[in-house]
Amino acid sequence: MVQHLTDGRAQPAQRELEEKLTQLEKASAKERTSREKVLETLLGSADLLSWVAPCDDVVGEDVLAEHFLQIRNAVRLVLCLAVDEDHGAAVNLNAASTASRLVRTNIALARALGVTAGANSKTVRGGRRGKEPQD
Fold first, then answer.
1. Between 95 and which of 71, 79, 82, 130 could a Cys-Cys bridge form, CB atoms 3.0 to 4.6 Å apart?
2. Predicted structure pTM score
3. Domain ranges across the chain
4. CA 1, CA 20: separation in Å to the nearest integer?
């Protein structure tokens, strides 16, 4: 930490500077803890090496299924950021754009995994409207 100056006039300014530094350190520690919690929740570990080191018994479909779940969680996280009013419009727009790309990626993974195989579309556009007699 910064040492106090012996001059009486500089001490209040020095104390104020030290208080600001302490606040910044606390905020940084809080941010680091929050980031580690998100990484732990989203990716299973805050250890970066565990993300890239493959297991010995890697099965392609298992890896895709894991990515499918991770992207789903990432979409939830980014959508929370997109609707958060504490951030500016630019951050919200970027988060919404990221969420859109993640959703498209998740749909592609679902197709690759066969999650949607055999499922028929139940949307309004997907079905025909029956003819009804006019009154």
1. 82
2. 0.42
3. 15-53, 54-115
4. 12
pLDDT digit string, tens, across residues 72-112: 888 888 888 888 888 788 888 898 898 888 888 888 877 87
Q: Is 102 exposed, middle or buried (0-12, 13-18, 19+ CB in 10 A)?
A: buried
Task: State the CB neighbour count (10 A cutoff) for residue 107.
Answer: 13
- Could you report the per-residue pLDDT of 20-55, keeping only the tens digit for each? 999 999 999 998 888 888 877 776 776 766 666 666
Residue 54, Ramachandran bin (φ over 0: left; ψ between -120 and 50: alpha; else beta): beta
Assigned token pair, 4: 């106090």
CA–CA dist 59, 54 (Å, integer): 10
Do the beta carbons of residue 95 and residue 78 sit within 8 Å?
yes
87 in Cβ contact with 94 (< 8 Å): no
Tokens of 115: 């999650």
Give CA–CA dist 133/86, Å, rounded.
54
117 DSSP assignment: T
